[in-house]
Design brief:
Elements (H helix, E strand, L loop, with lengths): L2 E3 L8 E2 L6 E3 L4 E6 L19 E7 L7 E11 L3 E5 L20 E7 L4 E4 L10 E3 L3 E7 L7 E2 L3 E2 L2 E3 L10 E5 L7 E7 L16 E10 L8 E3 L3 E8 L2 H20 L3 H11 L1 E4 L7 E8 L12
Parallel strand pairs: 1-4, 3-5
Antiparallel strand pairs: 2-12, 4-17, 5-16, 6-15, 6-17, 7-8, 8-9, 9-10, 11-14, 11-16, 13-14, 15-18, 18-19, 19-21, 20-21
Length: 308
């Protein structure tokens, strides 16, 4: 189990079967950095065009289609003191009649203070008092290469992960991905210092990140789309459009997880989900929406198969 200190020099704006940036093994840890969504680094220099440029891909030795890749997010933090956001909600999150009332959107600037772990609004909003928010660093983009030689824009998401913008992708979470290509080819980027549910303005507080993660390979364990867990919950992710399809995918995958790993039958799994389930909105701004189905571990029987 090796710790790799990796400084990216090439970034990608698609999730695809690109040449590996680094080869790592099951159990290895990587300490690396990411650019912000507009291609700026920790010094605020523009080193890539806008479009969620990704660090990676990281090739995991021994990963083959049909396996599952477990990615534990050990540490996430902004690595510069500035960030930005956009200021007006997306047209698709309001009724059409409201569009004429929305102003032109602009960029808002934020000051990030690592000592106090806060972000303070630096732009002038005459109608809004000074606002300071606690940091909640999360990765907006995280995923593996899709099947079939596809290269899919980092603007969207799918069964491979991608631009999910789920504010639950924070340090301490383990995210599970299906492996579609040899080596899995893991990508990550689009760090947000803070973001509300849905990414309704099209951004969080966008900034560059330092990231530490550890990978484990679950050989022969097959899943259909991203899953995750933290200390308290398990969750499944549906990336699709319309939003209803995202709900269906996430719910179906949760039922399958409860059947396969917890030994519940259809009636027990449905009852548990019906009384104790939660749904979180990930992204409702990008071409594919993200819905998350979440269930507390305290209601679950012992797992048949312990995670890595």
């Amino acid at each position: 189990m090796t710790v790799h200190h990796f400084i990216p020099s090439i970034y990608y704006t698609t999730f695809g079967s690109h040449p590996p940036a680094l080869r790592i093994a099951d159990g290895d840890t990587v300490i690396t950095t990411t650019l912000d969504a507009w291609g700026m680094d920790f010094q605020g220099r523009q080193v890539m065009p806008k479009g969620n440029p990704q660090s990676g891909p990281f090739y995991i030795e021994g990963a083959e289609p049909g396996d599952t890749l477990a990615v534990h997010l050990d540490h996430l933090a902004p690595n510069r003191r500035t960030g930005f956001s956009l200021t007006v909600v997306a047209p698709n999150v309001v009724v059409p009649e409201a569009l004429s009332y929305l102003p032109a959107r602009r960029q808002a600037d934020w000051r990030i203070d690592p000592a106090s772990q806060t972000a303070a609004l630096a732009s002038d909003f005459p109608a809004l008092p000074a606002i300071t928010l606690p940091l909640n660093p999360m990765l907006g983009c995280l995923g593996v290469a899709p099947a079939g030689g596809q290269a899919i824009s980092t603007a969207t998401s799918g069964d491979y992960g991608g631009n999910m913008d789920y504010r639950g992708f924070v340090a301490g979470v383990t995210v599970y991905f299906p492996v579609f290509v040899p080596g899995a080819l893991l990508f990550m980027g689009d760090g947000h210092a803070v973001q509300g549910d849905g990414e309704v303005v099209g951004t969080g507080i966008e900034t560059s990140f330092e990231v530490t993660f550890t990978v484990h390979l679950l050989k022969g364990k097959s899943i259909q789309r991203p899953r995750g867990e933290n200390r308290d919950d398990i969750f499944t992710v549906g990336n699709a459009r319309p939003l209803e399809l995202g709900v269906q995918l996430a719910t179906t995958d949760m039922l399958i997880w409860l059947y396969e790993d917890y030994g519940l039958d259809g009636e027990a799994a449905s009852t548990l989900l019906g009384m104790c389930g939660h749904y979180d909105v990930g992204n409702i701004y990008d071409p594919a929406f993200t819905m998350v189905c979440r269930l507390s571990k305290k209601y679950l029987p012992k797992r048949r198969e312990s995670p890595q």
